[in-house]
Amino acid sequence: MQPPRDLTGTQARPLKAPELRVPPDSPRHRYPALPEKSNALLMSLLAQLEQSQWWEPERVHEQQFLQLATLLEFVQGSIPYYRQRLSEAGIECDQDIQQDWERIPVLTRQQLQTNVQRLRVRKPPPGHRQLGMAQTSGSTGTPVRVATTETTRLLWNAFVLRDHYWHRRDFGATLAAIRHFGEKIDAAYPDGLRLPDWGAPVNLLHASGPAVALDIFTDPERQLEWLLRQNPDYLITFPSNAAALAQHSLVEDISLPKLREVRLVSEPVDDGLRSSIHDAWGVPVVDTYSAQETGTLALQCPEYGVYHVQSENVLLEVVDPDGQPCKPGETGRVLVTTLHNYAMPLVRYEIGDFATVGESCGCGRGLPVLTRITGRVRNMLVLPGGETHWPNLAATFYRQVAPVIQHQLVQHDLEHLEARLVVERALTRDEEEALRAMIVGRIGHPFSVEFSYPDHIGRSRSGKYEEFVSHVKQERKTS
Question: Looking at the whole model, is its pTM more than 0.85?
Answer without folding.
Answer: no
